[in-house]
Amino acid sequence: MSKVYLVASGKGGTGKTMFAVNLGASYAMRGHSVVIVDMDMGLRNLDLYLGLENNVVYDVYDAMMGVCQIKQALIRDRRFDNLCIMGASPEREKGDLTPLHVQVLCEKLREQFDYVIMDAPSGLDDGLVLAAAGVDAAIIIATPEYAALRDADAVDMELMKLGVKRRYLVLNKLIAEMMTAGYIPKLREVVAMMRPEFLGVIQFDSNINISTNVGVPIVMKRDTYISRNFDGIIDRLEEAEAATE
């Protein structure tokens, strides 16, 4: 059965879009068909992170409003056998969109893909409400800082109100030496203070910044600790989802 995952964060700068890109790439390299949908209207970056910015003709707004067919808004990443994206609209004000539009889009994408990954805008606004429509579960990305964790908790509460029952947490940009020295919250403290199920960490690495700037998912370089971080997160996510079925 196809899955629709929302990737959300309480604040900007947590690496949410980086996570969505590499989650999708990791699933594609496992042989699954994947589409990543950029729901961050006006602040779109998904196409840049995959080096596909010159390929965007129609965007997700066009697809939802009937300006084009869904297949016309799908952009194929030819480095993979089965990975597509849908770019976001360059204009932020989309007051004519409703959660029903997004829900219908998700249902149609389920028919074509094993995994649909919705990259939500950061924070709490109508964009989160739209992006969460029709999803099966949410993955909240936070950094190991009290402010980021507080904001992630606020997003988690909003997702609960929106009826998203299965919610998960990933810590990004973790520097082990700072955690050992006590400068940032320890993992057991994070797990104790947050409601979502903890999926794992992604360690800080400047190569991640390089990969997003050159438009190459970092998980394409196999047998690194970053790719192993993502593999472990996916394994735990699949186990958690299987337990709910």
Total beta strands: 8
Main sheet: strand order: 3-4-2-5-1-6-7-8
Distance between the termini: 11 Å
Strand content: 15-25%
* Poorly predicted sequence stretches spanning 5 or more consecutive residues: none
Mean pLDDT: 93
State the helicity in percent bands: 40-55%
Gross morphology: globular
Radius of gyration: 17 Å
Our count of helices gives 11
The computed structural class is alpha/beta
Main beta-sheet strand count, sense and barrel state: 8 strands, mixed
Written as H for each helix and E for each strand, in order along the chain, the element string is EHEHHHEEHEHEHEHHEHH
Task: Describe this protein's structure.
The structure is a single chain. An 8-stranded mixed sheet has the order 3-4-2-5-1-6-7-8, sandwiched between helices. A hairpin with a 6-residue loop joins β3 (about 75) and β4. The protein is built from 11 helices and 8 strands. With about 240 residues, it is an alpha/beta fold. α1 (about 15-30) packs across α11. The longest helix has 20 residues, at about 225-245.
